[in-house]
Design a protein that fits this description.
Elements: H1 6-20, H2 22-25, H3 38-43, E1 52-56, E2 59-63, H4 69-77, H5 96-121, H6 126-145
Antiparallel strand pairs: 1-2
């Protein structure tokens, strides 16, 4: 979820109720702010918000059902998750591919922080920041080419 997302705000009360019922369902319920955890959103390949996953014994399934409390509970109680195709092996959050995707998301956050530092903190013009990144990209490419 993300705090600025209208759909996330709409499901928030339902999700909190579901979390309170989690002990009776013998499950653990959590939520992750993708704006604070970009690596995790990359690892789970989150493209829409909110995104709900069911995880059991290292097998991940994306929940695409109705977002009412009753339907969320039924998904667990009636074991409806068993009928859902697991996330493909290469797209699984525990795969090497998704570890790499998480790394790219972390890298993009790091680049954004550097850009902010250059433009906001140091007061450099945006184009100077772009020139720094272009130069760094070219130098890294040249170095790797050697």
């Amino acid at each position: 979820y993300a705090p600025w997302c209208p759909a996330c705000q709409q499901i928030e009360l339902t999700w909190e109720s579901f979390a309170k019922e989690s002990e009776h369902l013998n499950i653990t319920v959590g939520k992750v702010d993708v704006s604070q955890e970009p690596g995790l959103s990359g690892r789970f390949f989150v493209t829409t918000l909110p995104t709900i996953y069911h995880a059991n014994d290292g097998v991940f399934r994306r929940y695409r059902g109705s977002r009412t409390l009753e339907d969320l509970q039924d998904y667990v109680l009636e074991r409806k998750w068993e009928a859902v195709e697991p996330v493909a092996g290469w797209k699984s959050p525990s795969s090497i591919m998704m570890h790499g995707m998480a790394g790219l998301f972390h890298l993009s956050g790091w680049i954004r922080q550097i850009h902010s530092y250059l433009t906001v903190t140091l007061g450099l013009h945006v184009w100077i920041s772009y020139a720094v990144f272009i130069s760094a990209t070219l130098l890294i490419g040249l170095f790797l080419g050697l």
